[in-house]
Amino acid sequence: MTNTISVSGLRKRYGDVQAVDGVSFEVAEGEFFGILGPNGAGKTTTLEIVEGLREADEGEVELLGLKPWPRNAKLLPRIGVQLQATSFFERLTAREQLRTFGSLYGVPARKADEMLETVGLTEKADERVEKLSGGQAQRLSIACALVHDPELVFLDEPTAALDPQARRNLWDVLRAINTEGRTIVLTTHYMDEAEVLCDRVAIMDRGQILRLGPPAALVRGLDAPTRISVASGTLDAEDARRLTGVDEVTDDGVSLVVETRDPSSVVAALSAKDALDGVQIRGATLEDVFLELTGREYRA
Known about the structure:
Residues 5-231 form the ABC transporter domain. This protein has helices at 43-51, 94-103, 109-118, 134-146, 164-179, 191-197, 215-220, 237-241, 263-272, 286-294; strands spanning 3-14, 17-28, 32-36, 58-63, 79-82, 152-156, 183-188, 200-205, 208-213, 226-231, 246-251, 255-260, 280-282.
C-alpha cells in the first residue's frame, strides 16, 4: 500500500525544550491515523512540521511524495488543514465563508455549497458564523479544509470543547470523509474517539512516540485485569475476595468491583451465588494503555 506520509527522525527544539525528539512514522493511503498524547507531548508541533507550517531542526518528511518544507505550493491544493483554533471572516454567513475559502482554490460556488450538505450545515447556510454553535462552527471549519477536495486532511483536536452529542455527530462526518478514500491524520485527547475512528494510533509523550499500532492491538498487548462490577450488597466483599481468580475487590457502597485476569471463572462463581445483579464487565481500553505509558499525573 502506498504511503501518503513518511516521517523519519523528526526533531524540533524551542530553547531548552525538546518538543519533538526523533519521531518516525508512516501513514498509508486512505488510512485514518491518530496522534495521541498529553498536553505538551509534541503532537501539534509534529503535525505543523508535517503540514509544512514549521521547519524541523532535523529529520525527513515526505507528503504525497513531495517535501512540504520549504513551503511547497504544489502540495497546497492536495491537502486540507483544520487547526486547533480557526478564525472565520467576520459578518459572513456559513455559505459566504465556504465560498470565500473555495475561491482561493478556484472552486465554483455550486461545489462549495455542496460541501455544506456534506457536513450537515445546509439549514445553517445563511446563518452568520458568529451565531453558529460550537459543533456547527467545527463542522464549518472542517468543510473549509475539504472544500477543494484534498487527498489528505489534517485535523488538530477537531472535537475539543464540544458536548457529547456534537462530538458524535462530528464522528459521523469524519467517518464519511474517510470512507470516500481520503487519508486523515487526527490529533485528539479523547481515547474513545481514537478507538472508534482510527485504524492506527501513535501515542506520544515528551516529544517521542512510545507506542504505535491499531487501537485493539495496543489494548490486547496491555497486561490489565478485567473489571466486573455488581450492585453493592449483592455479595459481601470478603466473600468476593475468596472467589477463584480474583486479584482485587473494592466496594464503594454503590458497586462492588472485582478485578481479575480470569473473568469467565469469576462470572461463573458470581452466577452460582446468584450475585449478578447489575453486572457490568469492562476490559482494558485505549485509555488504560495511554495512562500506562504516559502516567497519571495531571499536566496543565
